[in-house]
Amino acid sequence: MKMESSNPPKIVCFMCNWAFCEEEMRVPYNVNVIRVMCVGRMDPALVLETFANGAEGVLLVGCKPPDCHFVDGNLHAERAVKMLKKLLALAGLEPERLKLLLVSPLEDKDFSRHAKGFSEEVWKLGNSPLSKEEIVANLIAAKEAASAFRLRVLLGREEELTEFMNAYGEKIPEEEFDALLDDIVRAEFIRYKIHYLTRTKPRSVKELAQILGIKPSAVLRHITNMRRKGMIALDHVEGYTPLYKALEVR
Amino acid sequence: MRESQKDFEPKIVGFLCNWCAYAGADLAGVSRIQYPPNIRVIRVMCSGRIDPAFILEALKNGADGVLVAGCHLPSDCHYLSGNFKALRRVTLLKRVLKDFGIEPERVRLEWVSASEGDKFAAVVRDMVEQIKKLGPNPLKVMEEKK
Amino acid sequence: MAEGKVGAVLVVGGGVAGIQAALDLADSGFKVYMVDQSPSIGGVMAQLDKTFPTNDCSMCILAPKLVAAGRHPNISLITNSEVLGLSGEAGNFEVKIRKRSRYINEEKCNGCGLCAQKCPVEAIDTYNKGLTDRSAVYVEFPQAVPLRFKIDREKCIGCRTCQEVCKANAVEYDQKDSEIVLNVGAIILAPGFEPFDARLKSEYGYGRYANVVTSIEFERILSASGPYGGIVLRPSDGEIPRKIAFIQCVGSRDAQLGNNYCSAACCMYSIKEAIIAKEHVPTKLDCTIFYMDIRAYGKEFDAYYKRAQEEYGIRFVRSRVASITEDPATGNLLVHYVGEDETPRIEEFDMVVLSTGMQSPKDVEKLAKTLGIKLNKYRFCETKTFTPLETSKPGVYVCGAFSSPKDIPESVAQASGAAAKAMAIIAPERGKLIAVKEYPAERDVSQEEPRIGVFICHCGINIGGIVRVPEVVEYAKKLPNVVYAEDNLYTCSDDTQKRIKEKIKEYNLNRVVVASCTPRTHEPLFRETVREAGLNPYLFEMANIRDQCSWVHMHEPDEATEKAKDLVRSVVAKARLLKPLKNPTVKVTPVGLVIGGGVSGMTAALELANQGFEVHLVEREKELGGHLRKIYYLLEGEDPQKHLERLVKAVMENRLIHVYLGAEVVEVSGFVGNFKSKIRLSSGEEKEVEHGVVIVATGAVEYKPKEYLYGEDPRVMTQHELEEKIAKGEFKAKKVVMIQCVGARNEERPNCARICCGQAIKNALKIKEQNPDADVYVLYKDVRSYGFKEEYYREAAAKGVIFINYSDERKPKVTNDGGKLKVAFYEPVLKQEVQLEPDYVILSAATIPNPDNKRIAEMLKVPLTKDGFFLEAHMKLRPVDFQTDGVFLCGMAHSPKFIDESISQACAAAARAATILSKKVLEMEGIVASVDEDLCSGCRICEFLCPYGAIEMKERDGKIVAHVIEALCKGCGVCGTACPTKAITLGHFTTEEILAQVRAVLQEMEVAAK
């Protein structure tokens, strides 16, 4: 059961440089605003890092189309948020803790209303049922998955593939791409989680399956793929149980 | 232990037969299996070609370890029985190394097949560890003292 | 379509059989097109971990063949393709091929693998049997030939990542399927097999229970390059199993499924898998094999079977497993079976391996229809006993598992045999379609100082992304004798070859060093390049800074750069000493000598003559025919005597074959291409003949039993004696007992004699045919009616022939009790002693080696097995070659076998011989040993050590010195290492060269002042 916490949640807000001007900014004390050039160009890993560092909610504020200073940064932001929400869910955090707010710089003048609203939404979610260590571990894994080449490529190509055409002159239906992304995000998250878990000490397939709450057969398959990619290696065998240890990935 | 030994990086010379061990080392590469960069490989056609003189020359020139690797016993040898000859020669050599004041463990004979990229990498890793423990080639140390 | 015959052959299927056929054809002057559906060649053998009965690593022995086929100038690989249509006739066919798009330009792709590393999409890895994944752009396995990537269009999302990372610009998303038309004179079919789909045997739970795997999956699990890195693991939880069950005959010998044949190889591969599993598992592992009969019928197989039991403690349970269930809590499997004592049992295992049988590939009907060939009822290619390599369509031949399930050596023998068949119909066209390359005259560099050019490859970013290549180039420029160095994006690309040649001219280079990938794949290419520039190809050397440097030290750019420098320095040190080598040549006498005039010898002689070679055929007996003369009828129904008559006539009438009856070869000297032999004729005279090859076809003999009252009681006879009596109509009996394995599978001769089970079934059926009321009992250890012979076993059982198992501990007893012939034995079902009073006892006497083998082996300097049969060069891949070049074997001289198998081998021996006889001169590898006669002390150590007999002692100026027979030397260098006076050394790997490498790799060379 979720406990509603007594203190307002810690919120970090990444705000587009062009969204609100200084005079429009009355910020609640639990919200920390960090200005960025464009939310669309922000590294998704940074958001996960922010959560890992203790933020209970992250608000991304950008400009509504067609006002984006960088033409289509807002679209990038939408895609990144979609993927981030998948990763948050995998990490055991409510996807609602992340919100993308697109405002029109000319019309929208009241930031504090948005900030308070979001803050309350997050407050209602209460504390995560997972322990702090677990969440931090999950978020580190999620962050590393998000920084890895595979997800970055997919994120970078989504627009091209789903809205224009792929290399074969076909357009990939949004749902199809989304399903593929789901699978890959999940796989990458699990692999980086396995990687995280085996950094400090070698672990067995069964042990990993128990921690991850998935079938051992699935863990084994991930390990075969991680072996192929040079992420993990057999450390030693105890009796009938092989234990694996993470290899340094750079 | 001397100060410098702490970050001592051994130099290892590997004599690999073309058909099995060298192919296994290549497979480690294709599979991107990482191992420490301490080994320098010299390719020969057959482990039976590896003259104890080559090993001694390597030790004389400052190698901290020598790896000899060929096809698995008994029947993997491309040239029928070269691996047995290597076995005999290396075994004999290791016996006399002591007299030179060199730890026989610095010379290692391994069988690595063309599909054992993993094993090749593991052998190198293990050998680097082992030789780090042994410290630098005593011949080199003597040389330095002079 | 071209007129007349065409000197080219199409080989369909690029497994080990197809490769062997292609190599034999290409090596004897024919153009070969090899079509395979897969993106690379290698077939099922490329997936195997080890091979029985020698436990050789499968990839280690296959890879050299893959490479040889891949770079043979006369072989065109047409992969990812299928046959669409055929027209024309034997000698001149037109074949239409569809080449499916790879979406990768084969010419441009250099196999660097960057695309696969960066591809964001994963697909099921079919090479690893679905146990792991691969990327959507892929090669099947690292050693793939051709090493060209392919895009899995099903999975690819077209994200263009591969195109962007490919520095060779090889990705072509708009590549379309294409059709090509080939003109060939003959076709060889080698499409192989596919494993039975174990899901169809639903009671075994494959596909439902994670820890039930098929044998081919288990091969991948065992393989060091497999998904689990060679540790045996349970797919359900990654634990190492303690107890594995192997279940035989899954999809074979199964009338319910309609697969009423035996898959012939599963018993052996399961034994092998059990042995290897035990070797791989560090802790204790129990392996149990559930079988109906262990069919270890091949050469040295029973010895292997015995070792499995005695040395490895593998348990064998004779029982057909009823079903398998899973304990969902543990993933363990409960095997339900009826024990040997007839009681139902349930035994728990950690893992179950299903020995899935062989069946013809999926779309084989389509292929058969396209080509117009007949299939048998099991969808295998139809063949006949006396024409085992011929399909129903003239000019189209078959080999390997497509004609019947078989193991690797038989497939390889058939492949060579099919090649011989193809060669014969287009023999006049030999040499007409092959590429002959002209090279410029070789520059004499002997008086020049070494001038070395160094070319360092970035391999896209494979090397350059880690090793600082420009720094290595600058370093190389300062090395002694290096007059030029540069870096290339891809040193192997076509334009770089041109550049290397230009630089050789411009800088007057006389040594070339390339630092790039592995010499195992790329050395031949660069040697070719320097040769085209007028340099001797051995003035080239390679440093491997990718596979053994940048790829394995990806996170240590500094160390990797230093290592690359060391490796370049070491190789430059060697290059300074390199000497030009000549490829030794020997002239070939285009004549064959065949020893033995049985069905094998006659077939081999005829096949050689059909290709236009003269043959001396020497038979010890007064007439031709050998063993076949004693065979009167066959299981398959053909008339062997008629065939024999035809064969003898064909041999006697052939003008190219000289037959010597009642004669013996008494002396053989010389070596490949140049033998001289003495034949002692029936008149007692000796005749000397010159020839280029020898084929040993000395056959085998029937064992004369010492047991079971044989020779004491006339009612006890051998199968051959029975057959003769039946054929002459002299046999009448109401009750017959046959005893199997007489003189085989015992202490003295541990191996199976292979053909006796078939003989017993054949004669039992004949007795039943003549008198359906006759009682026939067959007392056996295992009924080894492998392949399609299984069907006759079933027929015999259905007709009332009673098969009763006996064990070594309780052998049958035959007695003469006051004139009554009695056989007593233990009946395992009734669990009691039974006594019969038959009219006759028929002994299935083993086929044992020709007693003359020993003499012939010594004369030819070739080895025998412990049993006394001839021992081939390699049990798996060189079944009809001897280690001694130019000497071949076939038929029962090799081991007992059926007629069709002997004929296949005889054709194979002829094809292998033709690879030599078809050449006017043989060119040998240049890396051979040489002797400094002044230093040689004549101690003979090298002569003793040489595994190839390539060293002989000769007199020179009054002293005995070693002399290398270059034609026999294989270049291992063992001799040089052992020579006490350093008189003998191996070219290109001389002691000085290697020592220079050793010193240079460890010490900075003096930086030459330039």
Mean pLDDT of chain B: 89
Give the proportion of residues in helices of chain B: 40-55%
Q: What kind of assembly state do the chains in view correspond to? A: heterotrimer
| Sequence of secondary-structure elements of chain B | EHEHEHEHH
Gyration radius over CA of chain C = 31 Å
Q: Main sheet of chain C, how many strands, which sense, barrel? A: 5 strands, parallel
First CA to last CA of chain B: what distance?
A: 19 Å
Point out poorly predicted stretches of chain B. none
Return the average pLDDT of chain C rounded to an integer. Answer: 94
- Per DSSP E runs of 2 or more residues, the count of β-strands of chain B stands at 4
**Biggest interface and which pair forms it?**
B-C, 57 and 62 residues
Coarse structural class of chain B: alpha/beta
From the alpha carbons, calculate the radius of gyration of chain B and give it in angstroms.
Answer: 15 Å
Gap between N and C termini of chain C: 63 Å
Give the uncertain stretches of chain C in residue-range form. 1006-1010
Global morphology of chain C? globular
Please tell me what the overall shape of chain B is.
globular
Strand order of the largest sheet of chain B: 2-1-3-4
Percent of residues of chain C in helical segments? 25-40%
- Please provide the count of β strands of chain C: 52
Q: Major sheet of chain C: order of its strands? A: 5-2-1-13-24
Description:
The complex is a heterotrimer of chains A (250), B (146) and C (1010). Chain A is built from 8 helices and 6 strands. Chain A has helices at 44-52, 73-91, 111-125, 132-147, 149-163, 174-200, 205-212, 216-228; strands at residues 11-16, 31-36, 57-63, 98-103, 232-238, 241-246. In chain A, helix 5 (149-163) packs antiparallel against helix 6 and helix 7 (205-212) crosses helix 8 (216-228). In chain A, 42% of the residues are buried. Chain B is 42% helix and 16% strand. Chain B has helices at residues 21-30, 52-60, 82-97, 117-134, 138-145, and strands spanning 12-17, 39-44, 65-70, 107-111. A 5-stranded parallel sheet of chain C has the order 5-2-1-13-24. Chain C has a 5-stranded parallel sheet with strand order 15-22-16-17-18. In chain C, a hairpin with a 5-residue loop joins strand 34 and strand 35. In chain C, helix 5 (215-222) runs parallel beside helix 6 (266-280). The chains are: A alpha/beta (250), B alpha/beta (146), C alpha/beta (1010). Chains in contact: A-B, A-C, B-C. The interface between B and C is large, with 57 and 62 residues.
